Amino acid sequence: xxxxxxxxxxxxxxxxxxxxxxxxxxxxxxxxxxxxxxxxxxxxxxxxxxxxxxxxxxxxxxxxxxxxxxxxxxxxxxxxxxxxxxxxxxxxxxxxxxxxxxxxxxxxxxxxxxxxxxxxxxxxxxxxxxxxxxxxxxxxxxxxxxxxxxxxxxxxxxxxxxxxxxxxxxxxxxxxxxxxxxxxxxxxxxxxxxxxxxxxxxxxxxxxxxxxx
Length: 213
What we know:
Helix content is about 45%, strand content about 20%. By secondary structure, it is an alpha+beta fold. It has a single domain (about 5-210), classed as Glutaredoxin (3-Layer(aba) Sandwich). Strands 2-1-5-4-3-8-9 form a seven-stranded mixed beta sheet, sandwiched between helices. The chain has a two-stranded antiparallel sheet with strand order 6-7. It is globular. The chain starts with a helix and ends with a helix. The mean pLDDT is about 85.
């Protein structure tokens, strides 16, 4: 690994750690405020996710069928990413922490865009690094064609390996995607922005409360 690449990884790791501390404090405050709220708006719908089947970090088949009836949040990452992936995964870890406090069945799904490297074993180690609860946060790998189809045609996210650089050899979207219980996309959030967590969790709260009306 080159000195510049190592420095880049250390910088992102430091930023991610700082964001996690700030994020958990802010999200705990958000949780308290949400208890007093009622649904404020109907979230827009951006289309349905088509059926797909990939493989989990535990080498199990997993796809849209396993997510039916659940609210879920997805992102695109890969384990060798020296760019934004550590920040995205740290963001998801903070969201997992907050969701666990209110006992919801909201699921988190991280899809590797580098399946040739990110085997189930590699993803399992990556998941452990971010303290992922396997009952709540699933990491997926699979065939390249399937992943590109799901990412680009299903989630409508950017994914491209043609314009790679040394720090991020696969260009992919930094967005987190909120999907409702029927498989419809209900929101996009820039995972590198400081207020993305609170926006996402506010919308999750509206979806949950909307179901109870």
